[in-house]
Specification:
By secondary structure, the protein is mostly helical. The chain is built from three helices and no strands. It has one domain. The protein starts with 11 loop residues before the first helix and ends in a 13-residue tail after the last helix. InterPro entries: QSregVF_b.
């Protein structure tokens, strides 16, 4: 399977969201998918960090406010 050139359509984004750890702050070391929704709301109001992490947090914010976080749980690597 060829990897899409546009990351918006990359199915691996969800796997990365489920397995990437927060690199800084109060929740450093937590899996992004386990970050509490109020923390993501705070980022949404203050501004997400630049780059890949910001895109991941913004995507996770949308997933959580729409009640879809259950889609990430099966993707967590043990």
């Amino acid at each position: 399977m060829e990897t899409p050139k546009n990351n918006l359509f990359d199915p691996n984004i969800l796997v990365q969201l489920a397995n990437t750890k927060m690199p800084f702050g109060k929740y450093q070391g937590w899996l992004l998918c386990n970050l509490p929704e109020p923390y993501l709301v705070w980022f949404q109001r203050k501004g997400f960090p630049p780059g890949k992490l910001g895109m991941q947090l913004a995507t996770l914010y949308e997933i959580k406010i729409n009640g879809l976080e259950h889609l990430l749980k099966p993707l967590i690597k043990k």
